[in-house]
UniProtKB/TrEMBL annotation:
This is Transposase. GO terms for molecular function: DNA binding; transposase activity. GO terms for biological process: DNA transposition. InterPro entries: Homeodomain-like_sf, Transposase_8. The keyword Coiled coil applies. Residues 60-90 form a coiled coil.
Amino acid sequence: MIRMGGKRLKEEVRLKIVKEALAGIKVGVLARLHDIHPETIRLWVKEYRDSIPTEEIPMTDEYLQELQRLQNVEQRYEKAVKVLGEKELEIEILRELLKKKNPAYPKNSK
């Protein structure tokens, strides 16, 4: 997160975000990535797009690769949190069973 305590972002940061938008990264993605309202980014693009030389606009491939990497990390994190939650639930169930004097074991059907 770049923004802190509602303070205005420095112009260098604004220009970086505008360049990313001009490189083809969707405004919604940039908004989530930088914790900024999408309409704010659109206003910055309108304000700065004519002042940014074409050679300063980054290659989209680099950013797409980075965004894909971040998405993969987020997916692995979500999966790990889910597995961890399931394991904690199993541990809690086992602890409750250990507290019982006569846990309900399945009876042998012979």
